[in-house]
Amino acid sequence: MAESAVKFLLEKVAPLFDNDLQLMKGVREEIVYLRGELERMTAFLRIADAFEESDAEVKVWIKQVRDIAHDSEDVLDEFTLLQAHDHGEGLYGSIHRFSCCIKNTKARYRVASELQGINSRIRKISEVHKRLRHKFNMAEQGSGSSTAGHMWEDYRGDALLLEKTDIVGIDKPIKQLVGWLLSGGSSREVVSVAGMGGLGKTTLVKQVYDAAKVKKHFKVHAWITVTQSFKLGELLKDMLQQLHKAIRRPLPQGTNNMNNNQLKTLIKDFLQKRRYLIVLDDVWHLYGWDSVKYALPNNICGSRIMLTTRNADVASTTSVEPGGKVYNMEPLPQLESWELLCKKTFQGSPCPPYLEEISNCILRKCEGLPLAIVAVSGVLATKDKRRIDEWDMVGHSLGAEIEGNDKLKDLKKRASSKQKKKNTGRCCRGLPQ
Ligand SMILES: Nc1ncnc2c1ncn2[C@@H]1O[C@H](COP(=O)(O)OP(=O)(O)OP(=O)(O)O)[C@@H](O)[C@H]1O
Ligand SMILES: [Mg+2]
């Protein structure tokens, strides 16, 4: 199956991040991209595998993924062999080592260029993947299937649009973060909110950013969504625009034609004597932080930077800045998770007693991840409340999706020890545990 070939490959890719690949310029980024795309595809592959025989386009795509997985595996095997090559002892060993060193360097560049070739193939199949997912989702609805596969992808990005009434369970963290922003020293401080995707980092920070006290305290503010593939020039121009708009100043002439260094200088000069709050949402790599931090001066006006990240390295690096703090997002507690599920599934009405057991079981599978709760509730809300079998099916497909989603499995591990204690232990009709 293509899914197992890709999973096998992902296991091989993981250790490379600690090895020599990071010495080769650009290759690490290529591998990060490769891994990200493959991870994204695995969950879909499970479903696509089932469609292989009935859809010619899916069949071709699966074959391409399988071929890429096998080709990448060969290249990575070659690379691993190069690493493990033994040179022997003594004079012969030294001469052998020297000649191997030259051969190895050439071989590594060949491996690197083969990897880049594989990535350009990955880029093409990723495009098809996007199209197929869309097609697949439509086929799914058409067939009346209630699988929960990928439904949470549709809810990403809503965090900036949520109304206060949509939000549950974060009053305390809002208070804590507002406190961190308003108290503390007069030097610039960096507050990171860290945790896996879908835990509600952006939702939380947006509420803090919009809090009346915060807006009043930081007249100069900007919200920048960084993302994995940000373009620095556009990011800096956006920041400059928001900062000027916040204090109703016109944007200086000619910013459109400025290079990144000129833009950074302009931002730095603008902020130098002002108390500012900048949010950098969704910072994927250290590079994201490194490329803007010098534009944000360490003045003595009580300025603050908040960033959200899934990357623990980014959080720990920013925490060593003077006054740096990290807020680690936790899964929603049981009560709040239930509140969110009911809000989204029954639109304010209470859960009918005969659906409580199955709803609780489905909720337990979400392990307090707001994105999963909102997504599964979106599916449940469309189900006939009298058809418990349909609700069971949602539970089943959610189980499979969580098993196929490494990130959710990680969360499951972390959260299970906490939540097991709180769960009532009611059993779930035929759902995989
Ligand atoms: N406290 C909450 N109350 C209600 N819904 C929430 C809450 N937190 C998150 N959500 C829901 O989960 C979705 C995902 O949350 P959010 O985008 O904030 O996660 P994130 O941690 O920033 O994820 P990513 O790392 O992918 O950016 C939101 O769009 C929202 O629908
Ligand atoms: Mg986010």
From TrEMBL:
* Annotated ranges, domain NB-ARC: 171-348
Q: Which residues form a coiled coil?
A: none
Q: Give the record's keywords alphabetically.
A: Nucleotide-binding, Plant defense, Repeat
- List each copy of the Disease resistance N-terminal domain by range: 5-87
Gene Ontology molecular function: any one: ADP binding
Q: Which portions of the chain have biased composition (kind: Basic residues)? A: 410-424
> In terms of domain of life, where is this protein from?
Eukaryota
Q: Please give the biological process terms from Gene Ontology that the record holds.
A: defense response
Disordered: where is this region? 409-433
What protein name applies here?
Answer: Disease resistance protein RPM1
Q: Which organism is it from?
A: Prunus yedoensis var. nudiflora
